[in-house]
Write a structure and sequence with these properties.
single chain, alpha+beta, hypothetical protein PF0899 fold, 3-stranded mixed sheet, 3-stranded antiparallel sheet, about 25% helix, about 35% strand, binds zinc ion
Length: about 130
């Protein structure tokens, strides 16, 4: 389960960003996860939900953009789609496919709430 350690470093990064910018909370985290990155999206989501409690990202929405896997087939001499790095070519069934895309795992965007500029009006009470 290396998803949990990925999430831990991600949350650490968010904490750093928040304290550097003076933000109190993070609204949205956008990640790119490639189909060939070896990262399981359900495991990642699950780890995120359990690890996020008590951090600045506690109320953040996690958006995961899944990047399709692609590879170069030496036999077909073209780019083919790959569901996992060990999969053979969907065209010729050959195993000589070099993964070329979908290996990424990266933080794309961090949307923060800046309470200094965007004050939420207090709800009318008494
Ligand atoms: Zn092929």
């Amino acid at each position: 389960m290396h998803e949990l350690s990925l999430v831990m470093s991600l949350l650490e990064l968010c904490e750093d960003e928040a304290s550097r910018g003076g933000f109190e909370r993070i609204d949205r985290i956008v990640l790119e996860v490639g189909a060939l990155s070896g990262v399981s999206v359900p495991a990642l989501t699950f780890s995120f939900e359990s690890a996020v409690l008590g951090t600045v990202s506690e109320f953040a929405e996690l958006e995961i953009r899944e990047i399709p896997g692609t590879g170069w087939c030496f036999h077909c001499e073209k780019t083919v789609s790959l569901q996992d790095p060990l999969r053979s070519c969907p065209g010729c069934g050959g195993s000589g496919v070099l993964p070329t895309g979908g290996m990424e795992f990266r933080l794309c965007e961090l949307i923060v709430r800046d309470d200094r500029s965007g004050k939420i009006p207090e709800k009318g009470g008494d």
